[in-house]
Amino acid sequence: MSWLRKYFPRTYFAQRNLARARVRTLLAVLVVTAGVVAVGGLGIFGSSFEASQQQNLGDVANEVTVTAPSEKPTRAPLENPVPLDERRLKSINSIAGDSMVTVLRTRPATGRLGDSEVRSVTGVQNFNATYTVVAGELPTNWQNGVVISSKDASFLQLQVGSPVRVNGRLYRVVAVAGDIPGDVMLPMRLVEPGNETRYSKLVIHADDAVEASRIAGDLDTELNDGLDRKEEFQIDTREADAEAIQQQFTSTSQFLLGIGSISLVIAGVSITNVQLMSARERRREIGVLRAIGFSQLDILAIMLIETVIMGTIASLAGIVGSLGAGAIINTVLLGDPTAFQPDTTRSLVIAFVVGVLITLVAGIYPAWVASRERPVDALRDQ
Fold first, then answer.
1. Which sequence ranges are marked TM in the entry (predicted)?
2. Please, are residues 195 and 130 in contact by the beta-carbon 8 Å criterion?
């Protein structure tokens, strides 16, 4: 007599019954496995998709922008706006600390950009901290030449080396950037050279969202203390936008998990059907067990243990399948098959637990039906 039969007779009979009906057991396990893979795989997909989008968004939540009062959109221009000058720029740099700062000066301009008119030009300091070059190369010591947007380059069929006329002077395109303020960008010293001490806007790149919030608060106190609301510097962070995007990602992940759970419910219905068929086919055997002393509770437990065994095997197989699917998803979205996110463990645990619980719940009714069989009626069955 095996130790399993001696110490755990219910489990022994349950695993024996499953082994005797291998094909039916295998089909039931495959159905549940598919459901677990759906839950786990979709959970991993949601986490990886969120990570890929956060990479695309970059450090949006870490940015702080300061706009001079004269550059804010208002119904009427201010008479004597407070300038964003060198003195205030030094205060801003002191508050920003080690954070990188891009300084901008946008002014009206005239000229030609291919077949289009140039209406504004932006001078910039520390271009590379905020903008990304997609074509050409910006010299380390950028002294001449313009940067244009990729949209203008495509629409106007311009490229690196194309001539651009700004305020009567001829320049060459040295680089193309993704998105820029104004029609063209020049080194700061070439934009309104007689007014070098007044700027339009600056962008601060903090280490994280918490530091960005701290910098924004300190800047508001430093720059706007004592000013009327319409005269204040406009200080913006993208933290609210980042939080809204994060909430959207969370809702999407929960929605995907819900879709995967539907497949597990369908698997549960399949388990119920399989166990009902099993109870009907084993009616005479159940009658014999009842006749030799097995109680209704014993029959109920044997049937439920069968479903738990199937659910556990299927869920473990589903976890392996989910990891395989996750590796493919990570390769497509993140370029690294091993780039699993911290939420992956939670998704896999949820998939495993739900898989086992669904099979257990699905087996309750068939087990109850089998346990209610009267021995005399079951033994008469041919």
1. 21-45, 255-276, 297-329, 349-370
2. no
pLDDT at 240: 64
Q: Token match 């390769």: residue?
A: 331
Closest CA to 318 of 29, 18, 21, 25: 29
Cβ 272 vs Cβ 364: under 8 Å: no
Residues in contact with 309: Cβ distance below 8 Å, sequence separation at least 6, in sequence order: 14, 15, 18
Q: How confident is the model at residue 320 (pLDDT cuts 50, 70, 90)?
A: very high
Which residues touch 29 (CB under 8 Å, ≥6 apart)?
310, 313, 314, 317
pTM, two decimal places: 0.58
Length of the chain: 382
Give residue 282's pLDDT band: very low, low, confident or very high (50, 70, 90): confident
Q: What's the pLDDT tens digit per position in 325-371? A: 888 988 887 788 888 888 888 888 888 998 899 889 988 888 888 88
Does residue 132 carry a pLDDT above 90?
no
3-class secondary-structure state, position 137? coil
109 pLDDT exceeds 60? yes
CA torsion angle for 221, 223, 224, 229 (degrees, to 10)?
-140
Chain centroid offset of residue 221 CA: 35
User: Which positions ≥6 away from 21 have C-beta within 8 Å?
Assistant: 278
Pairing mode of beta strands 120-125, 184-187:
parallel
- DSSP β-ladder status, 100-108 and 116-117: unpaired
At 101 the pLDDT is 83
Residue from 219, 55, 52, 193 nearest 121 by CA: 193
Give the separation between CA 376 and CA 287, rounded to whole angstroms.
7
- Share the mean pLDDT of the chain: 80
Provide CB contacts within 8 A for 183, sequence distance 6+. Answer: 109, 113, 116, 118, 119, 120, 121, 148, 152
Residue 101 β-bridge partners: 204
- The dihedral of CA 71, 74, 79, 80: what is its sign? negative
Tokens of 144: 């001449």
**Residue 325 and residue 43 in contact, taking contact as beta carbons nearer than 8 Å:** no
Comparing CA positions, the residue from 204, 138, 205 lying closest to residue 172 is 138
- Torsion on CA atoms 123, 125, 129, 131, rounded to nearest 10: 10
pLDDT beyond 70 at 5:
no
